[in-house]
Write a structure and sequence with these properties.
By secondary structure, this protein is α+β, with helices and mostly antiparallel strands. It has 14 helices and 10 strands.
Length: about 350
Amino acid sequence: MMQRRLSPEVKEKLLEALRIGVEKGYSYVKIWRMLRENGVEISRSTVRNYYYRYFPWRLKKRGKCLPRELRIKLYDEVKKLRKQGLGYKKIKKKIEELYDVSLSLSTISYWCKNICSPRNGCRAPSIDFLEPSPELSQAIGVVAGDGFATKKKDNEYVIGAKVKDGDLIEEFSKCLGKVLRRDPPKPRQEKDGIFTVEVESKALYELLRKPLDINRIAPYVEHCKECMRRFARAFFDSEGSVSKGGQIRCYNTDVQLLQYVRKILNLLGIRTTGPKIHVKKGTTIYDRRKGKTYTAKKNVYYIYVRKSDVLRFYQLIGFTIQRKQKRLEEYLKKRGLL
């Protein structure tokens, strides 16, 4: 910002100094010092602003920046080499050999001293930078059920979910924040009572675009027992139900996805049955909650947890949604299992 109320006399001296200084190739800092030596009291920022205002071609243009994904890889490699005891010049040479990229010594120095980092402000630029975690696994489970992954016309990649339970959407929001290293997105409640939360992320879109690729999500879901547990709980929160008789079911049109959920439950020691057809394609269905009639466009399948394993399901997985958890607890207490 230019200094306000610059006197005509000072402004005239400033402009004359700028003209002479630019002709001689001086920087605005040198011009500022020259003015100070001649007794002109003026701030350096004011000299700078006038300098670039009247001589804009003096601005240095920034060179083409390397893609963030590559910069993060280079950053990790620099930190690794530094831990091995290499100096800045040896690190620079090693990076050129490995990646055919030349880094300045100042950049290497800033990275090693943690002054700056290409990870700053980065929310996983691509799927390669998503790290397995219980929160990511839980987010996968929600999107696999009630969630969506959409690419819009203006190249916006939106991940989100629409559910009727606030406790589920709050937990989903926290998971998204943790995975993307940002504040959790704020859920909103629509007029019909449905809760919605969404966030932009190309990396999550690449992972969760539908139809869901089981081979793509498997390394994240099967990373550890806790990841498998959180995935199963999120999926049953989204697609599951608990009857008063204690039958735990989950529904989906993707039969391969249900078979994968069965595999995860089996790895956790919980036996299931199915998939079986719940609704056939072309069947007319009346939705009592919405008061609407519609025709099923696809077959709807379901799997259910065997009665002998309901207690283990409760102890190991359970539900985030309290109304489902409470119904399950009531059944187990009725059977004397709790």
